[in-house]
Amino acid sequence: MILVAAVLIPLLVNVFYQFSPKIIPALSVSFDLTPVSFTLTAFLLSIGVFGLRLFDLIPIARHTVLEHIPEMVFVVDAHDRVLDANSVAQKVLGKSLDEIIGKDPLEVFREWPQLINRFLTANETHEEIQISGDPPRTLELTVSALYNQFKQLEGRVIVAHDVTEHKWLENDLKYANEVLSNQLDEINKLRADLEEQAIRDPLTNAYNRRYLAEFLDNEIARAERENTPVSVVVMDVDNFKQFNDIYGHKCGDVVLQGITNFLNEHSRRGDVICRYGGEEFVILMPHVSLEVGFERAEMWRQDFSESVIDYEGMKLSATFSAGVATFPQHGATGDAILQAADHALYKSKDAGKNRVMVYGH
């Protein structure tokens, strides 16, 4: 505003001197005030140039914007000649400004072919590039095109930010996350294994008595809501003590494992096989009526009696006795059904073994 005023004042004074006698004779002056107005113009120009430090604006802007940017900054003209580079760029390249300005990029960036490939083939881009070295570095590269008022390309500004340490940290964090994720998966697997071991018999891998109590109560409650039956078979290996006495406890273990494998192969997926204790097993059959439960238990008994168990080259055979009870006919709780089936088992034992009996029959 001060510079504009300095230009307009002599112009306006001279116009007034030239035209005032013709327009308003009474205001005519005998001498020209225009030279005098130049004094005021000189004063205003002094204020504008020296008082407001007009000559310092461009150097300050260049120094502040270019030299204090922490990234590498290069300016390339439309003919791919390097016009400028800030101090960060000079330090990274190991070259002075005189070795950079006016030079061909192929010469300036001889050790950075990846950078040359990017800004010589694209007017604008934003991507990460790998720079070879020891160690290799990662640069976040931004190329911005500069156009004049006629939309003609005048040059490009290349800003390169060294993000190597950031990438190292990012890779370390990614690796740490992968390690933590793997450890978490391993912990979850171990927890699942421990939970499974807590409800499994270690010898036969059948469910144990603890799981039986919980599962049976849940099934009875659901069967009561849905008005469906639940059958329970309690079975006991006949003359099991003879296997231990004649062949040893290892043979007894093999027999128990053999009957567990047999039941797993011949039962439904929804059935639950539990080792109740010693040589006694319980099979829970949801949605199975008393008649069907008895038929299945009888089929198991017959098939198992005809099968053989391999033990150290010997072919052993075994039988079992079983008792069957069903909810809700034989009780309203899980314990009541188990007691009823167990009572039927003892009736099978007393009747000569190797047979299946239904509670109350």
Q: How would you describe what is shown here?
A:
The chain has 361 residues and is an alpha+beta fold. It is 51% helix and 21% strand. The protein has helices spanning 2-23, 34-51, 57-67, 87-93, 105-108, 113-121, 164-198, 209-226, 240-247, 249-266, 290-306, 334-350; strands at 72-77, 82-85, 125-131, 137-147, 153-162, 230-237, 272-277, 280-286, 309-311, 314-316, 320-327, 356-358. It has a five-stranded antiparallel sheet, with helices on both faces. A five-stranded mixed sheet has the order 7-8-6-11-12, sandwiched between helices. Strands 9-10 form a two-stranded antiparallel ribbon. A hairpin with a 5-residue loop joins strand 3 and strand 4 (137-147). Helix 1 packs antiparallel against helix 2 and helix 9 (240-247) packs across helix 10.
Quick synopsis:
The chain has 361 residues and is α+β, with helices and mostly antiparallel strands. The chain has twelve helices and twelve strands. Strand 1 (72-77) and strand 2 (82-85) form a beta hairpin.
Key terms for this structure?
five-stranded antiparallel beta sheet, alpha+beta, five-stranded mixed beta sheet, 361 residues, 12 strands
Helices and strands in order, then pairings?
Elements: H1 2-23, H2 34-51, H3 57-67, E1 72-77, E2 82-85, H4 87-93, H5 105-108, H6 113-121, E3 125-131, E4 137-147, E5 153-162, H7 164-198, H8 209-226, E6 230-237, H9 240-247, H10 249-266, E7 272-277, E8 280-286, H11 290-306, E9 309-311, E10 314-316, E11 320-327, H12 334-350, E12 356-358
Parallel strand pairs: 11-12
Antiparallel strand pairs: 1-2, 1-5, 3-4, 4-5, 6-8, 6-11, 7-8, 9-10
